């Protein structure tokens, strides 16, 4: 939580600072200014912000100098410093070279600030040198070596072509751009050639003065001794500054700190005349002698830049690779193709950050050159394989999306099919639907069997990302068409295998309406194709979600499968498989039909109307006396005729007589 609060307060501070400085500056009319990324220039007074052009969304960096930093300066120093900064940016705007910082929008001035826009910047060298630098910003050795070569090229251009002495080479005035290329910046104190009357080049020398603010003059830590001792200024003076810069990169600080102590600087220059150098333990051994030569007090004895390029220190494979990429635009396609073929052996040996930020930008630039894409694409995908998903989405996927749409050269589809597992792992689901699926459709429709088979093999692996309509209207029709029209048996078999793997993601009616009728349209009777058909039937029959109805099995499946079982060329194992499937289908038809008939019989018996004879029989059965009631009747009869039984009691005749008495009376009445 503390970290979040700290980040929030930092963001609020940045926004509030910009809102107070930039509103009156015309740079904000065309550019949106975002977060600060680094500082650069004399005294690191230029604040560098990420940004983009509002009209085109082009990424830029915006350099901002806040005039309030000079509030405590004297008026003369303040005006001198502002003039120096203006002059430096104006000179920078005029120079165009791959290793000089590119200005996108010229200097704009307001009451509170100076501002201009450049190519995207990562940091100044001062921000990434020293023990206090965070680990993710520390420079790799191959980056340092390659960066120094880039500075050599930039200085050669300044000295030989532009005839300019920089006079301000330092860690603060070397800028590293987004692609990790080192660029010259800080032309505040540069001096152009003013030829003498005889035509010899001449660069006027401006002596250091203690009456002027220290930041309004070149840094004494990087100044060549001849300026103080002999008042001489030549391109070789920049080489001394370059030597101090190299020492600073490895040691974390210059040879010696002077600040505004000009007399101390002069004493140190005299020490250099005696070749007294500080300890160089931090500097690589293969660079030590060349570094001492650059720091030689005599300007004429310092090595030339083209000589420095040849020392062992720069003969590293990684450095040479990065240097080749810098000059790639000068090569023809044949030279480029040879280089790209060997690049996969070098990429794994380089740090991932170098691959992602230094090599990848050059590779994706080649995507505009169609014949080179098959040579470049494997290297791009190799870097993607080493990247996280976020790095892939930020740096690689935007460049791949246009390539997904290409079908020529045909090798592009082949390379994508071979690396489809990687693409599916790193590409977000929505981008898979929009970019990768159309690529697969085109692969199915191409004429190259190898690509078709790779596509058929990979399709089932991400079938869950394909919606029902796309599966029904786009994927399955293409597979069916390919299977029916292709003359390649291997392609046909792979079509059937692919459909078999897709079945579990289909519904029952799609299988019954689209897949099973399609199988009967296949005319080929090669054993491999027959077994592919059998496999689909078996999956459809055994899968509980699908299931083939008994009517379909009886009317369509069995009549189709029986002739397949007698095809020539089948092995005994294949024949047994087909017969087993037919028997299984017949068994299921028999079982389901018997169960159905039994159920119908029961229902019919329960619902059948009764005839007259059956009704009469039921009535008679219900009126029949039960055995218990018959025994009771017999007992009553016994009681009734008990008076006529021999040996009966004396009371019985009386009862009988009394019973018959009324009858006698009636007879008497007659």
Automatic annotation (TrEMBL):
One of its GO terms (molecular function) is protein kinase activity. It comes from the Eukaryota. It holds the Pfam family Pkinase. SMART domains: S_TKc. InterPro entries: ARM-like (IPR011989), ARM-type_fold (IPR016024), CIK-Related_Protein (IPR051177), Kinase-like_dom_sf (IPR011009), Prot_kinase_dom (IPR000719). Residues 34-314 form the Protein kinase domain. PROSITE patterns: PROTEIN_KINASE_DOM (PS50011). Residues 620-635 have a biased composition (Polar residues). Signal peptide: none annotated. Residues 619-647 are annotated as: Disordered. Belongs to the protein kinase superfamily. This is Blast:SCY1-like protein 2. The lineage of its organism: Eukaryota, Metazoa, Ecdysozoa, Arthropoda, Hexapoda.
């Amino acid at each position: 939580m503390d970290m979040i609060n700290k980040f929030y307060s930092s963001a609020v501070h940045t926004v509030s600072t910009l809102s107070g400085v930039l509103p009156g500056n015309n740079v904000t009319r065309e550019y949106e200014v975002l977060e600060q990324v680094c500082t650069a220039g004399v005294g690191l007074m230029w604040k560098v912000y990420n940004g983009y052009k509002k009209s085109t969304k082009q990424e830029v960096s915006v350099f901002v100098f806040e005039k309030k930093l000079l509030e405590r300066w004297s008026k003369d120093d303040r005006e001198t410093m502002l003039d120096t900064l203006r002059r430096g940016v104006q000179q920078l705007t005029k120079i165009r070279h791959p290793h000089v910082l590119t200005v996108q929008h010229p200097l704009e001035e307001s009451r509170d600030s100076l501002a201009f826009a450049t190519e995207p910047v990562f940091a100044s060298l001062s921000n990434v040198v020293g023990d206090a630098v965070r680990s993710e910003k520390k420079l790799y050795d191959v980056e340092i070596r390659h960066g120094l070569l880039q500075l050599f090229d930039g200085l050669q251009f300044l000295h030989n072509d532009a005839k300019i002495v920089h006079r301000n080479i330092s860690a603060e005035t070397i800028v590293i751009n987004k692609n990790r290329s080192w660029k010259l910046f800080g032309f505040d104190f540069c001096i152009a050639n003013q030829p003498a009357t005889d035509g010899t080049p001449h660069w006027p020398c401006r002596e250091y003065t203690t009456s002027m603010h220290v930041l309004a003059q070149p840094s004494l830590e990087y100044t060549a001794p001849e300026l103080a001792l002999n008042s001489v200024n030549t391109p070789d003076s920049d080489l001394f500054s370059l030597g101090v810069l190299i020492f600073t990169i490895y040691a974390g600080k210059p040879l010696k700190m002077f600040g505004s102590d000009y007399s101390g600087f002069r004493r140190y220059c005299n020490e250099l005349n005696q070749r007294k150098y500080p300890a160089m333990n931090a500097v690589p051994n293969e660079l030590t002698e060349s570094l001492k030569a650059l720091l030689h007090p005599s300007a004429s004895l310092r090595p030339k830049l083209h000589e420095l390029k040849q020392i062992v220190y720069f003969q590293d494979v990684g450095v040479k690779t990065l240097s080749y990429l810098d000059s790639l635009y000068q090569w023809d396609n044949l030279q480029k193709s040879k280089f790209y073929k060997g690049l996969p052996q070098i990429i794994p040996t380089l740090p991932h950050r170098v691959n992602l930020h230094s090599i990848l930008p050059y590779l994706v630039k080649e995507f505009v050159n169609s014949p080179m894409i098959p040579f470049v694409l494997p290297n791009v995908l190799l870097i993607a394989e080493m990247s996280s998903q976020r790095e892939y989405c930020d740096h690689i996927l935007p460049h791949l999306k246009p390539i997904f749409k290409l079908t020529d050269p045909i090798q592009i589809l082949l390379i994508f099919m071979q690396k489809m597992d990687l693409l599916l792992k790193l590409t977000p689901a929505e981008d898979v639907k929009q970019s990768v699926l159309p690529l697969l459709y085109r692969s199915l429709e191409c004429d190259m069997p190898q690509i078709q088979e790779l596509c058929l093999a990979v399709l089932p692996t991400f079938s869950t990302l394909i919606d029902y309509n796309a599966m029904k209207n786009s994927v399955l029709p293409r597979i069916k068409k390919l299977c029916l029209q292709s003359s390649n048996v291997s392609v046909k078999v792979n079509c059937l295998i692919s459909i078999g793997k897709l079945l579990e993601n289909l519904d029952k009616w799609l299988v019954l309406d689209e897949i099973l009728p399609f199988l009967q349209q296949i005319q080929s009777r090669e054993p491999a194709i027959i077994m592919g058909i059998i496999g689909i039937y078996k999956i459809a029959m055994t899968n509980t979600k699908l299931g083939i109805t008994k009517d379909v099995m009886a009317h369509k499946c069995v009549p189709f499968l029986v002739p397949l079982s007698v095809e020539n060329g089948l092995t005994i194992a294949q024949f047994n498989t087909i017969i087993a499937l037919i028997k299984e289908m017949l068994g299921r038809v028999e079982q389901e039909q018997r169960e159905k008939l039994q159920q119908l019989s029961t229902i019919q018996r329960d619902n059948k109307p009764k005839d007259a004879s059956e009704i009469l029989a039921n009535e008679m059965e219900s009126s029949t006396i039960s055995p218990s009631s018959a025994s009771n009747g017999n007992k009553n009869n016994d009681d009734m005729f008990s008076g006529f039984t021999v040996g009966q009691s004396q009371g019985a005749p009386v009862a009988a007589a009394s019973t018959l008495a009324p009858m006698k009376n009636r007879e008497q009445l007659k």
